[in-house]
Specification:
Blueprint (H helix, E strand, L loop, with lengths): L6 H10 L3 H18 L4 H17 L3 H17 L3 H14 L6 H15 L6 H14 L3 H18 L4 H14 L3 H17 L3 H17 L3 H12 L8 H10 L1
Helix pairs in contact: 1-2, 1-3, 2-3, 3-4, 3-5, 4-5, 5-6, 5-7, 6-7, 7-8, 8-9, 9-10, 9-11, 10-11, 11-12, 12-13
Length: 249
């Protein structure tokens, strides 16, 4: 699930990304926040509903996630919070495919782009989120276009987003059986993640680089790369650790 990073809601959500216990704690905190607001602060309520939608989506509660995102979108439009509108639309694009509503998901992405255009909303974040959602929808050509566009924007003013963008570019390449392109993107992502101290992104890049090396026929090299990811301290206890354990097992 795609998650923006802002304020207390973002902090709760990052803690909820792993174990079920963390998700339940996040749900409780968000419900408590909504009760405390009590409809008096629609701006804060919109952000809380969007965060709640993400946690519900992460834990498989698709119907409730849609309802939360829809409520967040309604409130965000009411108070003209464009960032929350974009986040809610992308969240809906993420969960609609689980209901086999792929056309609806694509429409949500187009709406998110329209809201982000010409505003103070980060076009990099919106474009990156759209690219990731397009990939999940199997629209690889569009995902690649959005990734390239976001890379151009990030190179001009947001270099810390580059590792994640290169990582996404490599994943799209793997989806389209371009193993050489994936390896090239991964090397760039690996170098930048290491230089910028983004340890968990570094571990994620290693996992995908291993897949690219396997596709190129380097089984030993792939396993060595997954071993590096598995032993990375930032991946301990994270979903990546379980993934690498399965790959190495």
């Amino acid at each position: 699930m795609l998650r923006p990073r802002r304020g207390a809601a973002g902090t709760v959500r990052r803690g909820a990304g792993g174990a079920a216990r963390g998700a339940l704690e996040a749900l409780g905190a968000l419900h408590g926040a909504l009760e405390a607001v009590g409809g008096r602060l629609p701006y804060a309520e919109a952000v809380a509903h969007e965060a709640l939608g993400s946690v519900l989506g992460d834990t498989g509660r698709t119907g409730r996630a849609v309802a939360s995102f829809e409520e967040a979108l309604r409130l965000a439009r009411q108070v003209e919070n464009r960032t929350c509108q974009v986040d809610s639309l992308v969240g809906l694009a993420n969960v609609h495919p689980r209901e086999d509503r792929h056309d609806r998901a694509a429409a949500r992405l187009e709406a998110a782009r329209e809201v982000a255009q010409g505003t103070d909303v980060s076009l990099i974040g919106a474009t990156l989120a759209a690219a990731e959602a397009e990939r999940r929808l199997g629209r690889h050509a569009r995902a690649r276009e959005d990734t390239e566009r976001a890379l151009g924007l990030a190179a001009a003013g947001s270099p810390l987003d580059l590792p994640r963008l290169y990582h996404l570019g490599a994943t799209v390449c793997l989806d389209t059986e371009d193993a050489a392109g994936a390896a090239r993107y991964r090397r760039l992502a690996l170098r930048l993640a290491r230089r910028s101290g983004q340890a968990r992104e570094h571990a994620r890049v290693l996992i995908t680089l291993g897949h690219a090396r396997r596709e190129l026929g380097g089984e030993y090299s792939a396993r060595a790369t997954w071993g590096r990811a598995h032993s990375a301290p930032a991946a301990l206890g994270a979903p990546e650790r379980h993934e690498t354990a399965a790959l190495l097992g």
